[in-house]
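Sequence, structure tokens reproduced for reference:
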Amino acid sequence: FKESNGLTDCYAAISQVDRLQSEPESIRKWREEQKERLEQLDANSRKQEAEWKEKAIKELEEWYARQDEKLQKTKASNRVADEAFYKQPFADVIGYVAAEEAFVNDAEDIFPGTEWERVAQLCDFNPKSSKQAKDVSRMRSVLISLKQAPLVR
């Protein structure tokens, strides 16, 4: 015995029938047309959204492919530059590394009093030819003063 559910369903059905009967034909027709238009607009928007997603996925894949291609080209050029770097250790391009390699090679010939000459070989004391972005003038002046007047222990 489902009295509560049956009664509410009956009242809902009756109210709907009353509304349909009391509604003029033009309004009912407009309501149906409006419902069809809205369904059509929803279908078009879903279709357009799917197209946009496909387009976005394609563009993203193309972007990743271009990025990967750039990365591979950069890696290849870095490898070539690296090989050239190590094949020509005393080239002008290398500069500091060549001096550092000479410093390491001369490490066996350590004599007292030659420390600052070895440090001076590593440093570029010409402020205009320095390729560094930072201001190292203070460090340069300290090294020059230490070279000219070494510390006494």
Notes: The chain has a mean pLDDT of 76. The radius of gyration is 42 Å. Helices lie at 3-22, 25-87, 96-105, 115-122, 137-148. The first helix runs from residue 3 to 22.
